[in-house]
Amino acid sequence: MVGVGTAPLRGDDLLIRVENMVVEFNTSGGTVQAVSDVSFDVAEGETLGIVGESGCGKSTTAKAMIQLPPPKSGSVMYADRDLTEISKEELRRSRADLQMIFQDPISSLNPRRTVWDIIREGVDIWGTAGVWSDARLVELMEQVGIDPQYRDRKAYQFSGGQCQRISIARALALDPKVLISDEPVSALDVSVQAQILNLLDDLKTQHALTMLFISHDLAVVRNVSDRVMVMYLGRVAEVGDADALFANPAHPYTQALLAAVPGSGVNASARLEGELPSPLDPPEGCRFHTRCPHVTEVCKTTVPEFTQHGPDHWVACHHPQSTPVEIR
Predict the structure, then answer these.
(1) What domains sit in the chain, N to C, each tagged with a CATH number?
(2) Residue 210 contacts by C-beta under 8 Å, 6 or more apart in sequence?
């Protein structure tokens, strides 16, 4: 989080609980603090949107959650098991439940394999052909909008939007419980984006999925998420119910992100200025203080703790703002 502390858990139906996750990478220039003491939870059937600027740690958080790579410290509880503590074989089996759609749909598919081979690879590995028969895999292709008559074509023969549909089918082939969508529409045309978002929404209902939806596009996140977590420079700034967070953003960084969206209703004076600090040497105190219009001395020296700003709405800020916004 931009601050420290953890928003209280919301009930007994939590499927995922991440606590105090830290991810660092050693480079020739020093240690990159990609994710610093991040905690969050996801209830079964929920869609958690994760937003923030490029480089804020969104994708790294999601990948570390499924141990790609394992975090340096912290815990990841999935269905009452800590994925950071279980054996490699147990982790391998758990990953069938935790599938990911990657940001670049074309480069994430093997160009030497046919679409059919790509989609059924997981079934072949796990030997569940009795459950996922060829007929059911054909049905899955039809669900995502890929004509089965093209099953013997290779990925490079499809458009970006079609490759994303293939990626979604591959992810769903093992009946996962959790689907992580990492910028699933950022590389696509606007008209195709709407198709993929509607498809994901339909598939979530049909397959009873719990989703993490990662994006820097707040308009997209608002439409698909039940709850939203805002990240800045490897920490969480604000988290809460999507409608409440968009209607009354409390963190100056969240307000700045919304101000950058045309027609958001947020005063343009809240827009970001200055450069994003380097994760090799993040600022002391609140990491956002170098760009915050409300900065005081305490922001420069003390990491803020989470405080409640409303029902299921938490913010890590020394000077949380109350800024009702007319959502358009």
Answers:
(1) 1-79+177-189+206-328 (3.40.50.300)
(2) 15, 16, 42, 43, 44, 45, 46, 47, 177, 178, 179
